[in-house]
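# step 3/5: fold
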Amino acid sequence: MRQDTDQGSAPTTHRAVVATACGAVVVAQMATTIYLPGMPALGADIGASESTLQLSVAVFVVFAALPVVAWGRAAERFGRVPAFVAAGLLFVLASAALALITNAPELLGLRVIQAIGAGGIAVVGRMMIKDLFSGADLARQLALLSMAFVVALGGGQVIGGIVTSTIGWRYGFVILAVLAAIPVAFALRISLPKPAVTLPVKGTARRLFGDRIFLASAVAGGIGFAVIVMIQQKSAFIFTDRFALPPWVFGLFGVLYGAAYLGGATYVRRAVRGVGARVMMRRGAWIMLAGCVLITAVWVVDLPRAIALPIFLAGYVTSTFGQATLFPNSAAHAVSHLAAGAAIAVSWCALIQQGLAGIASLAGPALTGLLAWSLVLTLLAAANVALVRTPESRT
């Protein structure tokens, strides 16, 4: 349900909502990126295996996805701000507690709680954006969220690498908890009306899943997200074991990924009004496929490190640029054509996208061979190209 009021439509409120949503994106993604460089050291300290550490990434993605529709309905019933603040406080508390863990069960359990909060702030933040924008303007604002993602992707990994190499991985979680309190404080300053109590719309899921445009667009964004999560999940161990790089160097590579995501998001903001979200979505899928092919080429032959490392980085950067192009356009294209219920459709879109990434992340640890892992990435990217090229029609 839209919250169309003079107050809610004022430029000041628009800026506050966008700032809050951007902050949510930053901290939700930093829960992964600030954590990646410290994974090997964390595992050594608490006695967790590599597969358990990869599982800790997977459970975060899965449990960020599972409650998003419930968070969306809470935002519809109680208001955007109360739902956002509740999710944000959950995230802050779990992040702070992760700094004190001593064993693998504590790690996995708190990552679940942290993920539930992260999924809530991310989806409610998007819902607030959808309340205020539509069409190409929505794609442009979602691209702005992608620019916030840059801070998390690049900055989070750099911070995580430096913190792990200097004062220890535990302080990464402390920093994350402090940063997460900022968008919560921003949200408390937003004044939005509580939605009028209405009866829930029956058949929402059936209607959305029968809508070819919504389903194909949401799945396309989810597959792209799945590819990036699988790369992130494995990257810490590739850089540490295959390329023998210390955590701080791995962290510095986050600047490259951040620059790639910024480039993709900037490309979307400049081009989407001219060509439309669907065309931009197609371009992003093709770029991701090119990146995955480069990553696969690294493992086809046993290349020396001096050659393998730059090719792998080029593939990672290209895939990241493609996802920055694909993802905001897939989310905007999925919901912009809906005449009613678009705000709650945002939460269903997030469920599909996070869910697909979660499934992929659960499968990732089983792919122990790097060639098999990279081939799966390439097949997923190729399937996405085929999906976004199919004709659209609503059933």
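# step 4/5: annotate
Residues 1-9 have pLDDT under 50 and may be disordered.
# step 5/5: archive (pending)
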